[in-house]
Amino acid sequence: MAGTGDFAEILDGDVYKYYSDGEWKKSSSGKTVAIINPTTRKTQYKVQACSQAEVNKVMESAKSAQKAWARTPLWKRAELLHKAAAILKEHKAPIAECLVKEIAKPAKDAVSEVVRSGDLVSYTAEEGVRILGEGKFLVSDSFPGNERTKYCLTSKIPLGVILAIPPFNYPVNLAVSKIGPALIAGNSLVLKPPTQGAVSCLHMVHCFHLAGFPKGLISCVTGKGSEIGDFLTMHPGVNCISFTGGDTGIAISKKAGMIPLQMELGGKDACIVLEDADLDLVAANIIKGGFSYSGQRCTAIKVVLVMESVADALVEKVNARVAKLRVGPPEDDCDITPVVTESSANFIEGLVMDAKEKGATFCQEYKRDGNLIWPLLLDNVRPDMRIAWEEPFGPILPVIRINSVEEGIHHCNASNFGLQGCVFTKDINKAVLISDAMETGTVQINSAPARGPDHFPFQGLKDSGIGSQGITNSINMMTKVKSTVINLPSPSYSMG
Ligand code: G3P
């Protein structure tokens, strides 16, 4: 159970502690932040509201711990990460319980998130050992005008202190996708969890604590964005920010200083359906891509662009599957569970009402009870409707009927977002041409968008982000190349 057994030390009364300098602590602010259970809409947990002085302390420890960690052999760093991965998987049940209570993630998906996270950490350890164990050797005479008098040796060095800010929808997995690469590369890491998801994050961090990482190398500060948000992201001790979330990321990137940024800020992933597509495959993928975790995924299908000639048939097939979705509490492992907050539910409702006023066809009746919104397919959506462009982050999916592939590509590319997209057709040549024309970081052919497997590159164009993620890219992003040049007194040619 959460907060008991191995996790008892992270809880003080009914308030979870924060993690600084290798210890679980109460904030001297004496204040707490309540975490509301999306299903019951009552306070489920409380966490510490850390102060700016506590953030300063964490930054100091992170800086000194990083120096020692950078001198720790790579194989030893990997060994500790493997240990943390095993402990994480061993404790999947209490962590999944937190995910169910804090973010209403369906029970089975909550367990999968923790297991996937353990696997991600192990893979990161292995990948890090390989890619960080190698550097480059360059010789000067390949550039015009040079003799072979210079040997250049390059290696990858850590950046220093990485600030990781994961989102509510994968608080554990998207935290470890930053923690693993940061640590294997010799950085220290400060984690600022999302409010919903903070307790899952604290349990996950405790698994790293149990694995025996050095004091101060990992810290986790909880609190109000208004008090410590900007303070953290503009802190002079931070050498890199890895953020996943909404458009707060745009504000962060404007305020951050001369440091590398890794940002993933959402998407409006289009699903383009051609006349020759296998409509049963498309319908299955629309359900998985549009409605899993109630549409609260950056990579969810957020608009279907279907050729008019097959639109009726596709809508009928999708509706038949929507009717089978189980709606209810996450504890019962329902397909559609309450969205994360009341304000999210209100926002989604605003999009639905706008579509209603402007004449979209409601394939199901709009139904809401608290934060629980029943799945809804909106047909005959037009570009003047907000739902055609905005990200609902809820179980509401618009269908726009198109008369040409170009119309579909045009709609996709007119979006401010450019995360992923997908195209369904049996003609691979057409699929590749459409993929090339779509301005998104990834295009899936004949499958719904998805980030995983976690070692695949994951990136967004335009407002969807900065940089590329995926295990290898994240390790590289959290390092910098360092060169040492050996200058010889006279040219030297091997075997010359
Ligand atoms: O930020 C990415 C997340 O929202 C989606 O991840 O694994 O569901 O494709 P995934």
From TrEMBL:
<feature type="active site">
    <location>
        <position position="264"/>
    </location>
</feature>
<dbReference type="InterPro" id="IPR016161">
    <property type="entry name" value="Ald_DH/histidinol_DH"/>
</dbReference>
<dbReference type="InterPro" id="IPR016163">
    <property type="entry name" value="Ald_DH_C"/>
</dbReference>
<keyword id="KW-0560">Oxidoreductase</keyword>
<dbReference type="InterPro" id="IPR051020">
    <property type="entry name" value="ALDH-related_metabolic_enz"/>
</dbReference>
<dbReference type="Pfam" id="PF00171">
    <property type="entry name" value="Aldedh"/>
</dbReference>
<protein>
    <recommendedName>
        <fullName>NADP-dependent glyceraldehyde-3-phosphate dehydrogenase</fullName>
        <ecNumber>1.2.1.9</ecNumber>
    </recommendedName>
</protein>
<feature type="domain" description="Aldehyde dehydrogenase">
    <location>
        <begin position="24"/>
        <end position="483"/>
    </location>
</feature>
<dbReference type="InterPro" id="IPR015590">
    <property type="entry name" value="Aldehyde_DH_dom"/>
</dbReference>
<dbReference type="InterPro" id="IPR029510">
    <property type="entry name" value="Ald_DH_CS_GLU"/>
</dbReference>
<comment type="similarity">
    <text>Belongs to the aldehyde dehydrogenase family.</text>
</comment>
<dbReference type="InterPro" id="IPR016162">
    <property type="entry name" value="Ald_DH_N"/>
</dbReference>
<dbReference type="InterPro" id="IPR016160">
    <property type="entry name" value="Ald_DH_CS_CYS"/>
</dbReference>
